[in-house]
Amino acid sequence: MRQISNLIVLLVIINSQMLFARKNVQLSSPNGDIHFSLTLEEKVLLYSISYKKQPLINDSPLSLVFDNGTFGEKLRIDKPTFSTKEESYELIVGKAKHVNSLSKEVVIPLEELVHPFRKINLVVRAFDDGLAFRYEFPKQKNWESYVMYDEVTTFNLVGNPRVSTLFLPSYTSSHEGIYTDIDFNKIEDEKLMDMPTLYRYANNVFVAITESNIVDYAGMYLSKENGMLRGKLSPYPNQEKIKVKANLPHQSPWRLVMISDRMGALIESNIISNLASPCKIEDTSWIKPGKTTFTWWNGNMVPDTIFAPGNNFNTNKYYIDFAARSGIDFHSIYGYAEQSWYVDDGFDFGTPGANVNITKSIAPLDMKAICDYAKSQGVGIHLWVNWKALYPQIDKAYALFQEWGVVGMMIDFMDRDDQEMILMQEEMLAKAAEHHLFVQFHGSSKPSGLHRTYPNEFTREGTLNYECYKWSTDISADHDITMPFTRLLAGATDFHLGGFRAVPKSEFKIQYTHPLVTSSRCHMLAMYVVLESYLGMVCDTPNSYEGQPGFEFLQSVPTVWDETRVPYAEVNKYVTVVRRKDSSWYVGTINNSTARNLSLSLDFLEDGFYLLELYTDAKDVDKYPNNLVKQTKKVTKKDIIDIHLSADGGSVMHLKPFISK
């Protein structure tokens, strides 16, 4: 009898384990197009994703490697909790002002069947334009903290999609490089890929993989291993083993798969900010995004006058006066040549010396006097700093900058996104907010939605941009057009815009002062609409702008938006971005190096008449790329505008309600 009882118990245990082994959890997006499935099969946790019944990611293993063993084997799936998430919020800086977020969520409790019996939740959210999941580490007995060696998040892509990605040499990077367009099966194993990376599937389905809400964690990259993608966390400095250290409760960033059969939908998407933490700044009334000078780009040039260019009051006054009469909100100060504005005995901008002191400006500069003058002209001052000089004195420096009247910071040469740097970036933002300072990160990793949490983050660099015109021939319209389909999907990017000295490619030459550009004037203007950045740079000299065709558009174009639409988006060929601010619409189209024609419907307009200012490339733009044609006419939502895009060209529109006099 006892043997029979034992047999029954054994059968119950076996059947229970088989039930757990076969257990499957499924979730679909609100519109039903995106479908997620999680299965515990033969001791392996696998997930898959499909779109409109088309498999995109098949049976991808998930596991986490800690200093006390791997979490991912001998698990059980406890009862999942399903819910609908609805949220409406406002972005102070962003591609939209009012955002409505709707998703389906499932919290899947995972529990080890063997010692140390750890519990981790896999949280999955399905939106109509993508799916995200993250790991949550709840507070529990006998597990108070963890050291993570590896996060084995994989993406087993179906078939052989076309890939647009940035290959990187290491985790230490400024993320500035040329994007590669390649078939997935031709990518070499172990090559590090930056995120976002775009995948184009059959049936015109577009998938972008990135992450959102990177807080107290390491940034992630992708690498192809054994035929599938695997997430690779940025390790702590000076070693390779440790990736994350944390006390419980804790959570990972969201691993995000953006999905649509319309490329423009990925550019329009607010899914990254939907997944980010809500705003942590109580009083945001002081946050005023806008455009800024950036004299480093043009060489800090001034006219041939009685004063010399350099680290002095008169040079800065010259640019402040220009900003004031042009409606440009800020003037940036970095220094002159290789001399920072603050005391530094280092070799160059990137290498602070042993006696650097960011709280002391060099003798020729009276920062308080400069800030006072700028304020009297309605212009704010923002300062460039190397983060290594700033961080050791961050509290003292921020207090002093606020006392001077500084309104913002460009924090440069970060070149890391390990957990230490991620924590420092958040600290820089939080403390800057206490002193009413905005932040512009340079030499930085991709954004992950922190502009919602800390709307004083105005922009990030993290891309090969127009600064390289000063020393390289790598920049071109063909490079520009890769941005909306890759890096821009993560959020704002600083591109050093505003070069007004365009020349044909055959006449281009590298020059450190008065740098040249190779795309047309209309292409340059359109970049202000196509790219997302809440701190638009106006990098060239005052005499390069004033009296020049198109400068009036640059003066008027906003840097934050109420609404964004993308009617045309052909990967690496051309893109049209339509953005609204209040009752005015701005339309930017950039083209690659192949001329083409487009017809744009104005059906995004409201009823009534609008005044259209249309800027297009002139017929002789191949020889004189600064030339453009400006047309003004009355239009309605029923009109269709035909646009010729020259090679390396573009077009912009400004539409505002027509008021008859």
Features:
661 residues; alpha+beta; 11-stranded antiparallel β-sheet; disordered N terminus
Q: Which runs of at least 5 residues are low in confidence (pLDDT < 50)?
A: 1-22
| Largest sheet, strands/sense/barrel | 11 strands, antiparallel
Helix content: 10-25%
Distance between the termini: 102 Å
Overall shape: it is globular
- Tally of individual helices: 14
Strand content: 35-45%
Radius of gyration: 26 Å
The residue-averaged pLDDT reads 95
Q: What structural category do the secondary elements indicate? A: alpha+beta
The count of strands amounts to 41
Describe the structure.
The protein has 661 residues and is an alpha+beta fold. The strands form eight sheets. Strands 1, 2, 3, 4, 5, 11, 13, 15, 18, 19 and 20 form an eleven-stranded antiparallel beta sheet that branches. Helix 5 runs parallel beside helix 6 (367-376). It is globular, with a radius of gyration of 26 Å.
Short description:
This protein is an alpha+beta fold and 661 residues long. It has 14 helices and 41 strands.
Give the topology, please.
Elements: H1 2-22, E1 24-28, E2 34-41, E3 44-51, E4 54-66, E5 69-71, E6 75-77, E7 81-90, E8 98-112, E9 119-127, E10 130-137, E11 145-155, E12 162-165, E13 167-168, E14 180-183, E15 192-193, E16 197-201, E17 205-212, E18 220-225, E19 228-233, E20 244-247, E21 250-251, E22 254-260, H2 263-268, H3 271-275, E23 290-293, H4 295-298, H5 313-326, E24 330-333, E25 335-336, E26 339-340, E27 342-343, E28 357-361, H6 367-376, E29 380-386, H7 387-390, H8 394-404, E30 408-412, H9 419-434, E31 438-441, H10 450-453, E32 457-460, H11 477-480, H12 521-530, E33 535-538, H13 542-545, H14 551-556, E34 563-570, E35 574-581, E36 584-591, E37 596-601, E38 610-617, E39 628-635, E40 640-645, E41 650-657
Parallel strand pairs: 23-33, 24-29, 29-30, 30-31, 31-32
Antiparallel strand pairs: 1-2, 2-3, 3-4, 4-5, 4-11, 6-8, 7-8, 8-9, 9-10, 10-21, 10-22, 11-19, 11-20, 12-14, 12-16, 13-15, 15-18, 16-17, 17-22, 18-19, 25-26, 27-28, 34-35, 35-36, 36-41, 37-40, 38-39, 38-41
Helix pairs in contact: 5-6
